[in-house]
Amino acid sequence: MYKITEMSQISFYDFNQAYGFALDSKNEWIQRAELIPWHTLERSYARMFPAKVGNVAKPLRMVLGALIIQAKKQLSDAKLVQELTENPYLQFFIGLPAFQSKKPFDSSSLVGFRKRLNVAFMQEANALILSALEEVNDGAPLPVETKENVGTEILDATCAPSNVRFPRDTSLLNEARTQLEGMIDWFHKQYGFEKSHGPIVEWPTKNIWLLPKPNVPERKNPSHRTKATGLCGARSALSSGLHARRLCLGA
Predict the structure, then answer these.
(1) 100-109, 142-151, 219-228: which range is least confident on average?
(2) Per its UniProt entry, which superkingdom is the organism in (predicted)?
(3) Of 174, 201, 169, 173, nearest to 185 (Cα)?
């Protein structure tokens, strides 16, 4: 059930504040409220409630006004209710006749507000508000906000540029080898063992970068056998070297 509010288009002069304080007519929420055709929107909103009995729904100005404030200020449901309780300008915007310290509604009510305002109604409301703004500007088109071009934004993750090192497999293998050798040298120094590289790492050190590059498809690369053999040799040398180092450490 819905009951149309008689004073849906109240003036800020009629808004009663404690101690006689008056609202500032230049406030953005006062000016925005004057531009929205609340009464026209309320007639469309009332058609969503054909029943003549039951609980009376919240006024359209309170429902739509609260959602406009939430979208404009990027507030959560709980924070929005807190702002409405503390700010007289926001209370005027949602149609309250006077400032009140009591919450106008509970934060859980906003879930129902969003469900109640369907897409068709929001499109109609948007068209009416834009029409009212154009009338204020004497029919001139609304200014479009332009921003400086700061680059291209890639939204599809599959289109993200690759940042993989080249060559892929061999560089990672060589990095693992050098880091492990550094760890082993640290243990030699820490526990007083004799540091001895010898021929253990000579082959991978000299030949790791001579392996074929993997950017050419394997079926077109006549040296893919050399590549596979080289990788196996590098891995074997690494394994043999680590095994020999473990023997030196007495593992």
Answers:
(1) 219-228
(2) Bacteria
(3) 201
Cβ(10)–Cβ(52) under 8 Å?
Answer: no
pLDDT digits 0-9 by tens, 175-214: 887 888 888 888 888 887 766 555 455 555 566 656 655 5
CA 214 to chain centre: 37
Q: How far apart are CA 224 and CA 228, in angstroms?
A: 6
Q: Could you report the per-residue pLDDT of 34-67, keeping only the tens digit for each?
A: 888 888 888 888 888 877 777 888 899 999 999 9
Backbone angles phi, psi at 75, to 5 degrees: -110, 150
**DSSP symbols for the chain:** -----TTTT--GGG-B-GGGPPPPTTSHHHHHHHHS-HHHHHHHHHTT---SSSPPPPPHHHHHHHHHHHHHHT--HHHHHHHHHH-HHHHHHTT-SB--SS-SS-TTHHHHHHHHS-HHHHHHHHHHHHHHHHHHTTTPPPPPP-----------GGGSPP---SSHHHHHHHHHHHHHHHHHHHHHHHHTPPP--GGGTHHHHHHGGGSPPTTS-GGG-TTHHHHHHHHHHHHHHHHHHHHHHHHHHT-
